[in-house]
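Hey,
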Amino acid sequence: FRVIPSNLGETFSRGLKPHQIVTYLAQKKAKDISRKFPRYLVLGADTIVFIDGKIIGKPRNKKHAIQILKKLSGAWQKVYTGVAFVWNGGRKVKAGYAVSRVKIRPLSSHDIKRAAVHHLDKAGAYAIQEKKDPFVEKIIGDYDNVVGLPIRVVKKLVKLAG
């Protein structure tokens, strides 16, 4: 397989629920790549963190990452990942999503400042798979979803795609 990032903007209609947003964005990204490689099965994915009725995506910069991490410190949030398989130039689509609840332990100012420079490419500005980021206190749901790709959803979609 090859990793080919989609350069499409991550815009979506207002009023969508978190699971609808990640599913839509995963399909949008996969369709973009599928049009360029119509003979291949393309997997697209998108992840967001949702807390207090607000979507937390990737931080724009270090200052924004610090704001995000302060908000997440000591709090429960939901991590949503949408997955889409697209083939036949974007004409065939199977999509799904996973949601997990995550509690972040209370973070010190030092923890926040250190993490803020490392994860500007991650929704929520943290990465639980990193040994230097022991931030997660508890996960309810799919660990793989929080790390990046919900394998159960991927397997289900592969079966549906045939």
